[in-house]
UniProtKB/TrEMBL annotation:
<keyword id="KW-0456">Lyase</keyword>
<dbReference type="InterPro" id="IPR029069">
    <property type="entry name" value="HotDog_dom_sf"/>
</dbReference>
<dbReference type="GO" id="GO:0019171">
    <property type="term" value="F:(3R)-hydroxyacyl-[acyl-carrier-protein] dehydratase activity"/>
</dbReference>
<protein>
    <submittedName>
        <fullName>3-methylfumaryl-CoA hydratase</fullName>
        <ecNumber>4.2.1.153</ecNumber>
    </submittedName>
</protein>
<feature type="region of interest" description="Disordered">
    <location>
        <begin position="149"/>
        <end position="170"/>
    </location>
</feature>
<dbReference type="InterPro" id="IPR052741">
    <property type="entry name" value="Mitochondrial_HTD2"/>
</dbReference>
C-alpha cells in the first residue's frame, strides 16, 4: 500500500457552514445521560462541549459503511479502508452560546499531518469550527481525529483489563463505568452510528477490541463536568484535551482533577499510572 501522504496530496476540502436552533430539549436529554445536576445545566446557556449534541449530520442509511460511519464525508480523508478515532481537541469560549437562539457553525480544515505512532502510520486531521450567534463569534473549537488505513494489525491487544476503581489522592474524583445503555443513548444523542460503541460482536470480532469502546467525547465531557461541578467560582473558558488510550464498557475508571489558580488538570485513569485521557480546563 502507498504511504498515506500519497492519498492526501490533492485533498483540500473547503469550509462549510451549518445552522442549528439550539433546542434546549437536547441539552436536557444530555443532562439525563450524563446525570448532570439540575443547577449545572442552564435554561439559557449551553454548557462547555455540549454543542456536540447539536449541528448533527444524518446521512441516509445507504450512505453508511459496514462500520456504521458514512462512507463519504466532507472532512473524511480519502485513504483506503479508513479506521477513525477521536484523538483530542481544544475549545475556547468567549461567551457561552445561548440556548433557543439560532446559531451558525463554520468548519474548515485546519491541519492534516501524517505521523508514525507505535501502532503504525496514521493521519491526524484537525477541523476548526467557529460558532456565532447574531453575527458575534462566541466559541472556537478544534477537533483532532486520527485515521489509519487497512485492517487492524494488533489483534486483541487489550486482554488484561482493569476490574476495580484505582486509588488516587487527587482533590477531585469521580468514579465512572461505561455501560452499553449509556453508550447507546450517547450514540443516539450525538448521531454517531459507529458500531464500536453499541455492537459488541462487531467491536470484538471486526475491530479486535476487548469490548464496546467508550466514546472519546464522553471522556472529555466527564473531565470538563467534574471540573465544572467542583470549582466554585468562575466559568469554564477553555478546554484542551487528549485521548490517549481507549476505555471499554465495563471498565471502572476514575476521573481525577487537581485545581490550580485559574485552571485544573484533569485525567481519566484505570490505574495510578495508566492515563487514558487528560485535559486542562481553564476558568475565567
Ligand atoms: C466519537 C468518535 C470516535 C471515538 O470516540 S473513538 C474512542 C475515543 N478515542 C480513543 O480511544 C483514542 C485513544 N488514543 C489512542 O488510541 C492513541 O493515543 C492514538 C491516538 C491512536 C495514538 O497512539 P500511538 O500509540 O500510535 O501514537 P503515539 O503515542 O506513539 O504518538 C505518535 C505521534 O502522534 C501524536 N499524537 C498522539 N496522540 C495524539 C492526539 N490525541 N492528538 C494529536 N497528536 C497525537 C504524538 O504526539 C506523536 O507525535 P510526534 O510528533 O511526537 O511523533 C468518532 O469517530 O466520531
Amino acid at each position: 500500500m502507498a504511504d498515506l501522504d500519497t492519498y492526501l496530496e490533492e485533498w483540500e476540502p473547503g469550509p462549510v457552514t451549518d445552522t442549528d436552533s439550539l433546542d434546549p430539549e437536547r441539552s436536557q436529554a444530555l443532562a439525563a445521560v450524563l446525570e448532570t445536576p439540575r443547577q449545572l445545566f442552564g435554561e439559557t446557556e449551553l454548557a462547555p462541549l455540549w454543542h456536540w449534541v447539536y449541528f448533527q449530520e444524518w446521512p441516509p442509511h445507504s450512505a453508511l459503511g459496514s462500520d456504521g460511519h458514512p462512507t463519504e464525508g466532507h472532512f473524511l480523508p480519502p485513504i483506503p479502508d479508513r479506521r477513525r478515532m477521536f484523538a483530542g481537541g481544544r475549545l475556547n469560549i468567549t461567551q457561552p452560546l445561548q440556548l433557543g437562539q439560532p446559531a451558525e457553525r463554520t468548519s474548515s480544515l485546519a491541519q492534516v499531518v501524517v505521523k508514525q505512532g507505535r501502532s503504525g502510520e496514521m493521519v491526524f486531521v484537525t477541523v476548526r469550527s467557529e460558532f456565532r450567534q447574531g453575527g458575534a463569534l462566541r466559541v472556537v473549537e478544534e477537533q483532532d481525529y486520527v485515521y489509519r488505513s487497512g485492517e487492524s494489525t494488533t489483534k486483541n491487544p487489550h486482554s488484561e483489563r482493569p476490574r476495580q476503581v484505582p486509588e488516587s489522592t487527587s482533590e477531585w474524583q469521580l468514579e465512572f463505568t461505561g455501560d452499553p445503555v449509556r453508550l447507546f443513548r450517547f450514540s443516539a444523542l450525538t448521531a454517531n452510528a459507529h458500531r464500536i460503541h453499541y455492537d459488541e460482536p462487531y467491536a470484538r470480532e471486526v475491530e479486535s477490541y476487548p469490548g464496546l469502546v467508550v466514546h472519546g467525547p464522553i471522556l472529555a465531557m466527564l473531565m470538563t463536568e467534574l471540573a465544572r461541578r467542583s470549582r466554585t467560582t468562575g466559568r469554564v473558558a477553555t478546554v484542551d484535551y487528549r485521548l490517549r488510550a481507549p476505555v471499554f464498557a465495563g471498565e471502572p475508571v476514575l476521573v481525577t482533577g487537581e485545581p490550580e489558580t485559574d485552571s485544573a488538570r484533569m485525567a481519566v485513569v484505570t490505574a495510578p499510572d495508566a492515563v487514558m485521557a487528560q485535559a486542562e480546563v481553564g476558568f475565567e
